[in-house]
Amino acid sequence: MKIDFDIQLQKGSFQLEAKGSIPSGSVTALIGPSGSGKSTLLRCLAGLEPGAKGQITIGEEPWLSSETELPTHLRRIGYVFQHAALFEHLSVSQNLQYARKRAQGEAQHSLPEIAAAIQITPLLERQVDTLSGGERQRVAIARAIASNPKLMLLDEPLSAVDENSRYQLSLELERLFQQFQIPTVFVTHNYAEAARLTNFAIRMRSGKVIASGPTAEVLDPTHGEPSATQAPFSTVDLHGRTDLAEEGLCQLESAIGQLLVPLDSIPNQLPRRIIIRSRDVGLSISKFEGSSFLNQIPAQVEEIREFSNSQALVRLGCGSGTLVALLTLRSVESLKLKDGLAVYALIKSVTLEQS
User: How far apart are CA 113 and CA 305, in angstroms?
Assistant: First the structure.
């Protein structure tokens, strides 16, 4: 179910002129600086901005055109706000039942199945006003799925929860995206979360779409403009694990090769992707024997790009994946780095991050 949009909206001094397409079945990140129009575009897709003009087409169904403006309640969307908008006078179970009663079409998933998937079964009889921030957001996501949506719209659903809950909830979202296969548009300021959770990204600035494509390409720090607030990183796909309990290590099978990381840093449910910060990748022309670096990955320099007055980003091909190292210009010069040069990427196990 492809989504095409070409939307214009004047809202005070802010003007939205957003045009783009979202591939069928994708989990799409809307990224960009504050005030770029991410949440406004999401609200337009939901039909919550009455002044919006232009076109929105979901599959073959027009939601907005010069002749049509489909009301929000007929668009079959599941909307999750930044702060969970639950019915405070109802229990968790009653919140889900309310959504199910108003669902359109034949329900694809039962309420117990939804509750189990997002791990809120023990909360079903609780009153909403007794829940923590993370619990409330889980219920809000479950309620959105219970409405049997064609499209999920998530407006920074992780920003209102504490850091301890944020990563766990992101793992649950990752699992939900795989299990329920509902097309989703996900607004986030956190590029690492976008890299881990989505497969398509739209970058916005000043009310316009300035880039779109596979998330890894849109977020590639060696392409486009460097972010002033987001440290550059690489996204690495994971394929499997072997726990080396006696050594306290976990051996990960990844797109760039085998990686050794502390066992207690990897959750029981293996994420699909892992983040490696560019500042935590060093380079060597030869392999270090007897070194404390557990991860020395054979690589080839693909691109060198100046990042600042004193630093450069070095893009590396490693196996079937890529890494990006952030080095000083002096290091680039002393190592005589150039495109095509064979090197080793040095990654400390303690610097591998999941989000």
Answer: 48
Q: Which of 176, 193, 218 is the last residue of a domain?
A: 218
**164 occurs within a structural domain:** yes
Residue 224 lies in a domain: no
Mean confidence (pLDDT) of the chain:
91
CA atoms within 13 A on the CB side of 48: 12
Look at residue 321 and tell me if it is in a domain. yes
Q: Are 206 and 169 in contact (CB under 8 A)?
A: no
Sign of CA dihedral 220, 251, 26, 92: negative
Residue 335, domain CATH: 2.40.50.100
For the entire predicted model, the pTM comes to: 0.83
The structure tokens 């575009």 sit at 41
Tokens representing 52 are 């919006």
- What range defines the domain where residue 268 resides? 233-353
Q: Structure tokens of 342?
A: 């064979």
**Are 9 and 75 in a shared domain?**
yes
Alpha-carbon distances, residue 330 vs 10, 114, 164, 312, 344 (angstroms): 48, 54, 39, 9, 18
**In the predicted model, what is the mean pLDDT of residues 262-270?**
83
**Angle, CA of 325, 210 and 174, to the nearest 5°:** 65
